[in-house]
C-alpha cells in the first residue's frame, strides 16, 4: 500500500467525518459564547438587583481575560496544546469553562446574598479605582461583582484555551481542504450563541420572579453539554491520529519551547496579531454595552434592544461561510481585512453621531448590519492566514500568542469603556440615560488603526509572498 493510499483512507478525507468533527468543536464554542455574554443584555437589571454601576460592570466584563493576559495563561495553553495535542487540551478547556461558570452563577444567585462568601468578598481587594489598579477589583465594587469576576477569570482561561484548540483542530482536519469555510462555519455557529443570548437572556430573567441568575444557571448547564461534545470529539481525534501514524508531520518534528522565538521575530505575524486585537477590541467589548447603548438612544426595553442587536450575530453567521468559501477558492484575505476595517469605522461612527441625532431604528439596524459584515471578515480571512505564516508544529503556540495579544484588548477595553461612560455622564445614575457618543468614537478609532495595519499587511504580503491573497484550497 502506498503512502498516498494510506493518506486517502484517513478520517479527514471523509467529508462527513471532518464536518462531523467540526460540529462537535463548534457546539462547545457555541455554548461558550452563550455564557460569555449571558449578562450583557442584563446591565440594567444588574444595576437594579445587584447594584453594579458601569465601573463595576466594566471591571467584571474585563476580568474574563485577566489571567490570560497577566499570568500568561494563554501562552502556557498554547504550549500545552502543542505538547499534549488537541483532544487533551479540548477536554481540559471544557472543564475549566464549566467550573469557572459555576462560580459565576453562585456569585449572582440569591444564595450568595448574606453568605460568608459575600462578607469575605466585601473585604477583598479594596484597591483605589485608579489608573495603576490593573486588577478587576476596586474599593466599593459590590461583593457579587467581585466573585463573578473571579469565576469569569477562570471561565476566560477555559474559553480562550478552547478557542485556540478549536482553531488548531480545524487546521488538523481541514488543511488543504475547505479550511476558511470550516473556520467560518465554526464562528457562525458560535455567533448564533450571541443571538440566543441577546433574546433569551432577558426573557429568562423576566420570568416571575425576576432573577438575574436564572439565565446564568441555564448557560452553566449548556457548558456541561459543551464539555461532553469535546469528549466525543476526542474519540474521533484519537482515531484520526492513529490513522495518520508516522505520516503526521508534527510527530517527525516535535515542538520545542525555544521555537517561540521564530514566532516573536516575524514582522508579518505581529501585523496579523495587532489586527486581531484591534478588530476584537472594537467588537467583543462593544457587545457588552450594545444593548444598553440601544436602550439609551432609542428608549427601548432590553428585550426590544435585543431584537435589534439580534441582527448582528445572525447576519455574521449567515455571511461568514460564504466569505470563507470565497477565500478558499479565490483568496484575497488581506484585501478582505481592509474592507472589514472600513465597515467597522462606518458602523461605530454611525452609532456615535447619527443614532443620537436621529434616534432612528433604521440607523441602528444599518449600523448593526455593517458590523456583522465586518466581523464576518475576521475569522474568514484572518484565522486561515496564520497557517501560511508559521510551521504547523508551532500553530498552537502561534494562535495562543495572537489570542494573548487579543486578550490584552479584551481585558482593557470593557474597563476603559465603563470608565468613559461614567466620566462622560457626570451625575447620571439612571442606567437608561447614558450618552454613548464618546465610547462609540473610541471604538471607531480602533477601526482606523486596523485600516492602517491592513494596508501594511497587504504590502508585506506582496513583498514577501506569504500567499495571504491566494486561495486556501490546493488543486
UniProtKB/TrEMBL annotation:
Sequence ranges assigned to domain Major facilitator superfamily (MFS) profile in this UniProt record: 265-475
Read off the Pfam families from this record.
MFS_1
The places in or outside the cell where this protein is found are: Lysosome membrane
Annotated InterPro entries: MFS, MFS_dom, MFS_trans_sf, MFSD1
PROSITE patterns this protein is in? Answer: MFS (PS50850)
- Its membrane topology: Multi-pass membrane protein
Catalyzed reaction equations: L-lysyl-L-lysine(out) = L-lysyl-L-lysine(in); L-alanyl-L-lysine(out) = L-alanyl-L-lysine(in); L-histidyl-glycine(out) = L-histidyl-glycine(in); L-alpha-aminoacyl-L-lysine(out) = L-alpha-aminoacyl-L-lysine(in)
Q: List residues traversing the bilayer.
A: 21-40, 60-81, 88-108, 147-167, 179-204, 216-236, 268-287, 307-327, 334-355, 361-382, 394-417, 437-457
Give the UniProt keywords, A-Z.
Lysosome, Membrane, Transmembrane, Transmembrane helix, Transport
Recorded GO molecular functions are:
transmembrane transporter activity
Nucleotide-binding keyword on record: no
Principal localization reads: membrane
Query: Which GO terms of the cellular component aspect does the record hold?
Result: lysosomal membrane
Q: How does it associate, per the subunit comment?
A: Homodimer. Interacts with lysosomal protein GLMP (via lumenal domain); the interaction starts while both proteins are still in the endoplasmic reticulum and is required for stabilization of MFSD1 in lysosomes but has no direct effect on its targeting to lysosomes or transporter activity.
Sequence similarity: Belongs to the major facilitator superfamily.
Primary role: Lysosomal dipeptide uniporter that selectively exports lysine, arginine or histidine-containing dipeptides with a net positive charge from the lysosome lumen into the cytosol. Could play a role in a specific type of protein O-glycosylation indirectly regulating macrophages migration and tissue invasion. Also essential for liver homeostasis.
Q: What is the protein name given in its UniProt record?
A: Lysosomal dipeptide transporter MFSD1
Amino acid at each position: 500500500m502506498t503512502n498516498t493510499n494510506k493518506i486517502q483512507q484517513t478520517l479527514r478525507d471523509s467529508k462527513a467525518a471532518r464536518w462531523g468533527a467540526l460540529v462537535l468543536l463548534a457546539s462547545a464554542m457555541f455554548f461558550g459564547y452563550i455564557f460569555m455574554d449571558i449578562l450583557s443584555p442584563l446591565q440594567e437589571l444588574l444595576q437594579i438587583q445587584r447594584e453594579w454601576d458601569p465601573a463595576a460592570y466594566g471591571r467584571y466584563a474585563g476580568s474574563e481575560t485577566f489571567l490570560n493576559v497577566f499570568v500568561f495563561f494563554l501562552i502556557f495553553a498554547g504550549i500545552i496544546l502543542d505538547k499534549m495535542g488537541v483532544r487533551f487540551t479540548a477536554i481540559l478547556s471544557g472543564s475549566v469553562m464549566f467550573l469557572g461558570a459555576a462560580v459565576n452563577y453562585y456569585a449572582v444567585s440569591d444564595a450568595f446574598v448574606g453568605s460568608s462568601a459575600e462578607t469575605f468578598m466585601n473585604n477583598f481587594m479594596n484597591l483605589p479605582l485608579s489608573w495603576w489598579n490593573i486588577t478587576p477589583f476596586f474599593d466599593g465594587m459590590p461583593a457579587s461583582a467581585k466573585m463573578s469576576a473571579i469565576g469569569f477569570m477562570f471561565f476566560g482561561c477555559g474559553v480562550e484555551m478552547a478557542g485556540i484548540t478549536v482553531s488548531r483542530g480545524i487546521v488538523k482536519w481541514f488543511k488543504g481542504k475547505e479550511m476558511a469555510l470550516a473556520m467560518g462555519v465554526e464562528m457562525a455557529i458560535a455567533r448564533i450563541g450571541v443571538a440566543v443570548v441577546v433574546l433569551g437572556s432577558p426573557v429568562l430573567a423576566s420570568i416571575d420572579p425576576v432573577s438575574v441568575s436564572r439565565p446564568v444557571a441555564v448557560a452553566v448547564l449548556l457548558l456541561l453539554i459543551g464539555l461532553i461534545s469535546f469528549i466525543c470529539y476526542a474519540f474521533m481525534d484519537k482515531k484520526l491520529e492513529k490513522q495518520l501514524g508516522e505520516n503526521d508531520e508534527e510527530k517527525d518534528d516535535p515542538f520545542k519551547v525555544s521555537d517561540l522565538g521564530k514566532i516573536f521575530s516575524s514582522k508579518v505575524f505581529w501585523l496579523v496579531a495587532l489586527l486581531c486585537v484591534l478588530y476584537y477590541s472594537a467588537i467583543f467589548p462593544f457587545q457588552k454595552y450594545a444593548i444598553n447603548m440601544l436602550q439609551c438612544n432609542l428608549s427601548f426595553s432590553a428585550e426590544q434592544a435585543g431584537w435589534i442587536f439580534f441582527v448582528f450575530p445572525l447576519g455574521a453567521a449567515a455571511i461568514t461561510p460564504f466569505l470563507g468559501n470565497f477565500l478558499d477558492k479565490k483568496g484575497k484575505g488581506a484585501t478582505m481585512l481592509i474592507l472589514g476595517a472600513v465597515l467597522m469605522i462606518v458602523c461605530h461612527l454611525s452609532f456615535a453621531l447619527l443614532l443620537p441625532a436621529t434616534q432612528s431604528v433604521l440607523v441602528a439596524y444599518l449600523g448593526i448590519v455593517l458590523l456583522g459584515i465586518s466581523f464576518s471578515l475576521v475569522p474568514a480571512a484572518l484565522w486561515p492566514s496564520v497557517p501560511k505564516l508559521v510551521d504547523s508544529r508551532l500553530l498552537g503556540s502561534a494562535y495562543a500568542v495572537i489570542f494573548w495579544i487579543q486578550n490584552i484588548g479584551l481585558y482593557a477595553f470593557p474597563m476603559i469603556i465603563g470608565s468613559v461612560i461614567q466620566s462622560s455622564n457626570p451625575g447620571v445614575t439612571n442606567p437608561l440615560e447614558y450618552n454613548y457618543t464618546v465610547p462609540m468614537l473610541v471604538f471607531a478609532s480602533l477601526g482606523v488603526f486596523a485600516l492602517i495595519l491592513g494596508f501594511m499587511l497587504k504590502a508585506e504580503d506582496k513583498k514577501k509572498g506569504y500567499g495571504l491573497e491566494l486561495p486556501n484550497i490546493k488543486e
